[in-house]
Design brief:
The complex is a heterotetramer of chains A (732), B (195), C (513) and D (102). In chain A, strands 1-2 form a two-stranded antiparallel ribbon. Chain A has 732 residues and is an all-alpha fold. The longest helix of chain A is centred in the last third of the chain and has 49 residues. Chain A contains 30 helices and 2 strands. Among the domains of chain A are: 273 residues, no CATH class; 38 residues, no CATH class. In chain A, α3 runs parallel beside α15, α14 runs antiparallel to α19 and α17 runs antiparallel to α19. In chain B, α1 packs antiparallel against α2 and α2 runs antiparallel to α3. Chain C is mainly α and 513 residues long. The radius of gyration of chain C is 21 Å and the shape is globular. Chain C has one domain. Chain D is mostly helical and 102 residues long. Chain D has a single domain, classed as Helix Hairpins, CATH 1.10.287. The longest helix of chain D is centred in the C-terminal third of the chain and has 31 residues. Chain D is elongated. The relative contact order of chain D is 0.13. Classes of the chains: A mainly alpha (732), B mainly alpha (195), C mainly alpha (513), D mainly alpha (102). The interface between B and D is large, with 99 and 83 residues.
Chain lengths: 732, 195, 513, 102
């Protein structure tokens, strides 16, 4: 039905690739229906299934790595309406090429580390909530398995419609897991926000899919890519393709938290930390990047960046810069990491936008490792300190050596210190941007973002791990905690604009209601008070995976060292992931590499200078140095406000208008009609006075009217002879 | 034979009929209305006589003026103080009713006066027109004998039914007018209760 | 097995499906008011029988995907001098809806176990209405169809008026009696218009018959088709909740007792959609070509208007009812894409999507109404802002409600997604602009549904509701069945599309010629 | 004077009938209504007899006899009803007898 583009059937290890997503799905089913009451069993099931997936995906990866095979795919019809028409069938299938094999391995591996970590972590969180028991653990692992299934399905998707399906499913899992502690109002709200905001992007995504697929009479990636290798396909204009690509990119903007739809990701930190690590750092948020990489030929027809690619690059650049600036002023360790994630995703997008296919993908992989490492590390820190607030930490290096070491490695990798993973991948993106025609402005933006990255990472590190342990008691009151709003109130909860607000929230439970059941107090139980004792190192189940991930954070970069550096290493990554049929156009430049090293070191130096000795003083100097910019950053560039007012506000205004129309026009018209009928009836009813003579009068009136009527219709009726004859003869 | 009633007698009787009838419907005292009715009935009887239907004139006087009118007068006396004027004797809707009655009158007059009746004087009993029931020219002046034959030949059943009807109405009147012991006596002012 | 099947085929199978509930109603009328158990059992048996038979017929039909025309026909003259007959038969268009009716009726009967007074009258009326519902989908005689339609709609008046509940939440309260009257008037208005149209068909076609297969051969002038289409479409569209003739729907559905809400939203709305496809589009192809493009615009209005109104509601049943308005817009959109049967696969996708959406929405909305009604029964409030945190007390209901909400907002893996995808795919091939607007409705849908989940079940537990129960087994069974249906259909949409495609292709061929 | 014909009698009957109707419609007193009714009967009778005399057809007279008989019966029942009303309402104002009010 559509030309099979140089695609082979699944063979070798890849023939088993369907097991990769299936195993976690089975785990989800088993956990949901069989092992719900036993949390540890559920965890074991989930981890076992994922281990199986990892094994299979490792085999697939090895097969792809060792053989230079064409992409392999298989597809089965899902809906068939008109089999002989190219658009008559919607298919589901599996596509195995180097990119997806790589992603499979990454997702399975990182996912496995995170799940092992979660076995210990989630128990400590459950311990905070008296109403939650072992079933919560099952719930957690069930949903994690469902997510893993969806993500693997997304990676293996064979066509655009299928990727949309899994796209929505990962969104669902994200929603469920962000709102995992469903009894916390904030968690439920954050989950909803994540779903709705990403759905805004998905609208564009779906439109773009339909636009592109209907125009090209096919949805499958290989076919689409093939059509674009020689430039814009016949019959389409460049503008059409650019519009379709931009619409599809909207999906990536939503899912990968790019400007301006990034606002959901920081709030998503309400979820348990492993969720943040897996979904909101390593895998799901990278799906947008993966999507752009998948459709790379559409953005770059015949290898030349189209208008859409330019937009991708600049959205990426703006996002990288914006999120990095916001991360500088965050106090919540997870929010620093969340903004850092947004920023790094912006780097990847910028890379893909200027054509750095390999570099973007490479940063995607390395980032997955070191960012999940950082998140898991922050989870360990939070468990130890019972707080997310950086100002309640400090000096953890001495108390938690394993965590410290792993976290430090992650920080260095993120900051871009050579020769750690983040350095190589980020540097390669910068190199591309530098070399790209007209990319100098973008290069400067990204370089400055890299500087900021190094700075906020250093700030985070010093606040958490160096100096003395502050705890809740010694935290500086004016610096700690979520800083109160300055010039604008917090984005208004749109529900209240409609008078649609819940009757009961946890805020109401705080005063004088000690006897309430625990479930009614919700998040009030979160902060279990703890004594002055110093934080302790977490269990090996937690720091074990941290060290494994740290290993990768340190050494993974060597898989993609540019050949121009002269370390003598082959560029494995580029050899594995590159655009088929194209030579590598990028030439190595020393300038950006040196510049990025300098910038990273400068950022670290500035951060260390401010925060190494006396962090309070450093923070005060930072705030006063930033002056008016600081509240602006603290308010996240007012983008949440913008969204709340502009878009949600519009929607709710629409709702109010429509409800008004419903009540006052439509319904009133109906009731008016009914009322007029009723008043007619009332009028007629008033004629029923019960008085015989009145009735008789009406009778006479009717008779007169009848006679007049007949007389008007047939003037001669009463006077005709026939009338009389009829009268007479009728009586006989 | 062309029948030609005496115009003077007709107009006198007609005036009496109309005048008395007007008195019946407009009299302020009910008793006067009753008396006016008797007058009307006598005038109508006179008209019957003018039409040479003597038997009916007799019946009119006997049954109507004699029996029915007397009964109504009794009813008046049973329920009313004889001579008190009926203060609100004309009810609501007098003007509507008057207008409608005038319209009815106009219609009736229009219909009757513009119709061409197959009257004997005009057609002189053309032999082509014979009603199915048939009649003889000799019977044009209704004799009691002819009337008797008519009543008992084609109208036997209705004739007998009328007797039954009168019987039933008498019994019915008794039943209706009888005090019903099952019903409690209606309290005063019951009519003020809103239904 | 073969012999058994052929033996069974001699039975009046469709009559059995259709009339079993009515028979149940008659039996119930003979029972004593006090023997509640017996009454409930009879109701369950009757609807269960219908469901089982419908499912069996469906399975057999899907085993023969190439079978065209009407199967299991029964034809008995009734008033031959007027061209009326008792004519039953199903094809790929009506069979899924018969199955849907079976599912909804059975689950509704199960949920009706919650009714706690005047069981006898309730079940007798409800079962009568169910027979009407089945009959609309099985009858091939238009007069029969109207009769069954009235049979389905008139008992609703009593059921809503007597066993319903009064509207709460925002806006002015509405008594159930008023809602019942509104519902009845609208349904009768729709039925009257359809009847007019059908009489028009009868007299203008010169065939002097109400028989559907006969009428397929009728040739009508273009302007006649146009007027008749408008009449019949409008009549059925009122019943399917076309804005601005939809106001009976929110009031009626939200005031009805739970099982009736399920029946109303699950099947009665679909009678409208089915009627449009079967009678208006099926018999009047030229009229359809004239008016269908306009219907697309109305459909988008439906989608957006219903969604925005739903966003405003706090009464959960009202919200679901408005979401029905929105979702029926998808059906209209799919139907309207049949206007260009020659262009690509758009018309086929649109029509299939419309039927799919009818089935899917029927199941999902019945599920949501069932859940909302059950929670209402437990908490005595329909205002979801007055719920809160119920997930910790009723995890089963919370899970299934979340599932239903996700299905309703078109999450892949649930039937709603497949339906919407097909409709969008169909519309996009013809009028992308309408599809864009309709797709924009998705985000509003997500907002109000997730908000309802959040208000009702998430957040801290409302102390007023500290001691509430979860679903009972008698509630879990029907609701679970509905949830399972939407999941199965979402994962394997071919179960439905393979059955509907031949029938829809036949309609489209008539349209194209 | 012009000769008197059928139309004269018919017109008189019409006048009498309308007067009776007017009385029935306007009189508040139930007995007065009965009196007016008798006027209407007489109007009808007058017409019947006139027709019978001028057409000529004896049946009109026969009918008039019946009408008188029926009128007698009617008067009987009517008077009984009036008495009954009087007993129940303490008056015979039809204006206030409105238990049939809708």
């Amino acid at each position: 039905m559509h030309e099979q583009v140089a695609a082979a059937a699944l063979e070798g290890a890849a023939a088993n690739v369907w097991l990769v997503p299936l195993l976690p799905f089975l785990a989800f089913l088993i956990i949901s229906f069989l092992t719900r009451p036993w949390g540890r069993v559920s965890a074991a099931v989930s981890i076992l299934a994922l281990t199986g997936s990892l094994g299979v995906s490792a085999q697939v990866f090895w097969q792809r790595f060792t053989q230079d095979a064409p992409p392999m795919q298989v597809a089965v019809p899902w809906i068939t309406l008109a089999p002989d028409h190219p658009l008559g069938t919607i298919e589901l299938g599996l596509l195995v090429d180097n990119l997806s094999a790589m992603m499979l391995l990454m997702v399975c591996f990182v996912g496995l580390c995170i799940q092992i970590y979660s076995t210990a972590y989630i128990q400590t969180e459950i311990a905070h909530f008296p109403t939650q028991g072992s079933a919560s653990m099952s719930r957690f692992f069930g949903w994690m398995s469902l997510f893993t299934f969806s993500m693997l399905g997304l990676v293996l998707s064979h066509n655009l419609l299928e990727i949309y399906i899994f796209w929505e499913l990962v969104g669902l899992c994200s929603y469920l897991l962000i709102g995992f502690w469903y009894f916390k109002h904030s968690a439920a709200e954050a989950g909803k926000k994540a779903f709705v905001v990403t759905r805004f992007g998905d609208l564009g995504f779906l439109m773009g899919i339909l636009m592109l697929g209907v125009a090209l009479k096919g949805f499958d990636f290989l076919g689409l890519s093939q059509k674009f290798t020689q430039g814009i396909p016949e019959g389409l204009t460049a503008g059409f393709v650019a519009l379709a690509a931009v619409l599809i990119f909207c999906g990536a903007i939503g899912k990968s938290a790019q400007f301006p739809l990034h606002v959901w990701l920081p709030d998503a930190m309400e979820g348990p930390t492993p969720v943040s690590a897996l979904i909101h750092a390593a895998t799901m948020v990278a799906a947008g990047v993966y999507l752009v990489a998948r459709l790379f030929p559409v953005f770059h027809p015949a290898g030349h960046a189209g208008e859409a690619a330019l937009l991708v690059a600049w959205i990426g650049g703006i996002t990288a810069f914006l999120a990095a600036t916001i991360a500088v002023v965050q106090n919540d360790i997870k929010r620093v990491l969340a903004y850092s994630t947004i920023s790094q995703l912006g780097f990847m997008m910028a890379g893909l936008g200027v054509g750095a296919y390999t570099a973007g993908s490479f940063h995607l992989i390395t980032h997955a490792f070191f960012k999940s490492l950082l998140f898991l590390g922050s989870g360990a820190v939070i468990v130890a300190c019972h707080s997310n607030d950086l100002w309640r930490m400090g000096g953890l290096r001495r108390h938690m050596p394993f965590t410290w070491f792993a976290f430090l490695m992650g920080c260095l990798a993120l900051a871009g210190v050579p020769p750690l993973a983040g350095f190589w991948s980020k540097d390669e993106i910068l190199g591309y941007v530098y070399a790209a025609p007209g990319g100098m402005a973008l290069f400067l933006v990204l370089t400055f973002s890299a500087f900021l990255t190094a700075f906020y990472v250093t700030r985070m590190y010093f606040l958490a791990f160096e100096g003395p342990y502050r705890g809740a008691e010694k935290a500086p009151a004016d610096l700690a905690g979520p800083v109160p709003p300055l010039s604008l109130p917090a984005p208004f909860p749109t529900s209240q604009a409609l008078d649609v607000a819940p009757e009961w929230t946890e805020e109401m439970a705080t005063s004088s209601q000690e006897d309430l059941p625990a479930a009614c107090r919700g998040a009030g139980m979160e902060h279990v008070p703890h004594g002055l004792h110093a934080p302790k190192e977490v269990s090996p189940w937690m720091w074990g995976p941290l060290l494994v991930l740290a290993l990768f954070a340190v050494f993974l970069g060597f898989a993609g060292v540019p050949t121009g550096v002269g370390l003598g290493l082959p560029n494995f990554f580029e050899g594995f992931i590159h655009l088929s049929g194209e030579g590598h156009p990028h030439e190595f430049h020393w300038t950006p590499m040196l510049l990025s090293v300098v910038v990273a070191l400068a950022g670290i130096a500035l951060g260390a200078g401010l925060f190494a000795g006396n962090p309070e003083r450093g923070e005060r100097r930072l705030r006063s140095g930033l002056r008016l910019v600081w509240p602006f950053l603290q308010q996240k560039w007012y983008l949440d406000h913008l969204w709340a007012r502009a878009l949600a506000g519009t929607m709710y205004a629409g709702a109010l208008t429509m409800a008004w129309i419903e009540a006052n026009l439509v319904d009133r018209a109906v009731f008016g009609l009914a009322g007029s009928v009723r008043s007619w009836g009332d009028w007629l009813r008033s004629e029923h006075t019960g008085k015989v003579q009145h009735y008789a009068l009406m009778l006479l009136l009717a008779l007169v009217l009848l006679a007049v009527g007949i007389g008007m219709v047939e003037p001669g009726f009463f006077t005709s002879r026939q009338f009389v004859i009829n009268l007479l003869e009728g009586g006989r | 034979m062309i029948y030609d009633p005496n115009p003077v007698a007709f107009w006198l009787l007609a005036a009496m009929v109309a005048g008395c009838a007007l008195a019946v419907v407009r009299a302020r005292k009910l008793f006067h209305a009753g008396l006016a009715l008797v007058g009307t009935l006598f005038a109508v009887a006179g008209l019957y006589g003018l039409l040479q239907v003597w038997f009916l004139a007799a019946v009119q006087v006997l049954v109507y003026a004699g029996a029915i009118a007397i009964m109504l007068l009794f009813a008046i006396m049973l329920t009313h103080h004889m001579m008190t004027p009926d203060l609100k004797s004309l009810t609501t809707q007098p003007w509507t009713a008057a207008a409608l009655c005038l319209m009815l009158l106009a219609i009736l007059l229009g219909a009757t006066l513009t119709s061409t009746w197959q009257t004997a004087p005009d057609t002189t009993l053309s032999p082509t027109w014979t009603p199915k029931s048939g009649f003889q020219v000799a019977e044009a002046v209704p004799s009691i004998k002819a009337l008797g034959f008519r009543l008992l030949d084609p109208f036997t059943l209705p004739f007998e039914m009328v007797s039954v009807l009168i019987l039933v109405s008498m019994i019915g009147a008794l039943v209706v007018a009888r005090k019903n012991p099952a019903l409690p006596k209606a309290p005063e002012g019951r009519e003020e209760e809103a239904p | 097995m073969d012999t058994l099947v052929t033996q069974l085929d001699r039975l009046p199978l469709l009559s059995l499906v259709t009339l079993a509930p009515l028979a149940g109603a008659l039996v119930i009328l003979c029972l004593s008011q006090r023997s509640v158990r017996a009454i409930q059992t009879v109701a369950l048996l009757a609807t269960g029988f219908s469901l089982a038979l419908a499912a069996w017929l469906y399975a057999r039909m899907s085993a023969f995907p190439d079978a065209t025309g009407f199967l299991w026909q029964e034809l008995h003259p009734w008033l031959p001098e007027f061209g009326m007959q008792y004519h039953l038969g199903v094809d790929g268009l009506s069979m899924p809806l018969v199955l849907l009716s079976g599912i909804i009726c059975f689950t509704a009967a199960f949920i009706s176990l919650q009714i706690d007074f005047r069981h006898k009258e309730y079940f007798a009326l409800a079962l009568t209405a169910m027979t009407g519902v089945f009959g609309v989908f099985t009858s091939l005689d238009l007069f029969c169809l109207i009769l069954f339609y009235e049979m389905a709609s008139i008992p609703m008046f009593f059921l809503v008026g007597i066993w319903g509940s009064d509207k709460t939440g925002l806006g002015k309260p509405i008594r159930r009696q008023d809602a019942a009257m509104k519902l009845l008037l609208y349904l009768q208005l729709g039925g009257g218009l359809v009847l007019l149209g059908i009489f028009g068909l009868y007299f203008l076609s010169d065939l002097k018959t109400f028989d559907y297969p006969e009428l397929l051969r009728a040739t009508l002038a273009r302007e006649h088709q146009s007027w008749l289409f408008l009449l019949i479409f409008l009549g059925f569209a009122i019943e399917a909740g076309l804005v601005p003739f939809h106001t009976w729907l929110p009031d009626g559905h939200s005031s009805a007792p739970t099982a009736l809400s399920m029946l109303l939203a699950g099947v009665l709305l679909k009678m409208g959609g089915y009627g449009i496809l079967r009678v208006a589009v099926g018999l009047l192809p030229e009229g359809a070509r004239i008016w269908l493009p306009l219907i697309g615009v109305l459909a988008v209005v439906n989608i957006l208007y219903g969604a925005l109104c739903a966003l405003r509601q706090t009464d959960i049943k009202l919200m679901i009812a408005y979401s029905s308005v929105s979702h029926m817009g998808i059906v209209f959109l799919g139907i309207s894409s049949m206007a260009w049967p020659q262009v690509g696969t758009g018309a086929l996708f649109g029509a299939t999507g419309a039927v799919f959406q009818m089935f899917s929405h029927g199941v999902i909305t019945a599920l949501l109404f069932g859940l909302a009604g059950t929670v209402y029964l437990i908490t005595h409030s329909r205002d979801m802002t007055r719920w809160g945190g119920l997930a910790s007390r009723m995890p089963w209901l919370a899970t299934v409600y979340t599932l239903g909400a996700l299905g309703s907002l078109g999450l892949p893996g649930m039937s709603g997604f497949a339906a919407e995808l097909m409709v969008f795919l169909g519309t996009w091939q013809q009028r992308p602009f309408l599809a864009v607007l309709a797709i924009c409705g998705l985000v509003i849908t997500a907002t109000y549904l997730l908000r309802s989940v959040q208000f009702a079940f998430y957040g801290p537990l409302n102390p007023r509701l500290a001691e509430v129960r979860d679903a009972l087994p008698a509630e879990k069974l029907p609701l679970g069945l509905l949830a399972l249906t939407t999941l199965v259909l979402g994962l394997a949409p071919r179960l439905l599309t393979d059955v509907t495609t031949p029938a829809l292709q036949a309609i489209l061929e008539r349209l194209a010629s | 004077m012009s000769p008197i014909g059928l139309n004269h009698f018919l017109a008189l009957g019409a006048v009498l009938f309308c007067l009776g109707t007017y009385g029935v419609l306007t009189r508040r007193n139930a007995i007065a209504v009965l009196l007016s009714l008798e006027l209407m009967f007489n109007a009808v009778n007058l017409n019947l007899v006139a027709f019978a005399r001028f057409m000529p057809n004896l049946d009109g007279v026969v009918l008039a006899v019946f009408v008188i008989a029926v009128a007698a019966a009617e008067a009987t029942v009517g008077v009984a009803l009036v008495l009954s009303i009087y007993r129940n309402f303490r008056h015979i104002d039809l204006d206030q007898v409105d238990t049939m009010k809708g």
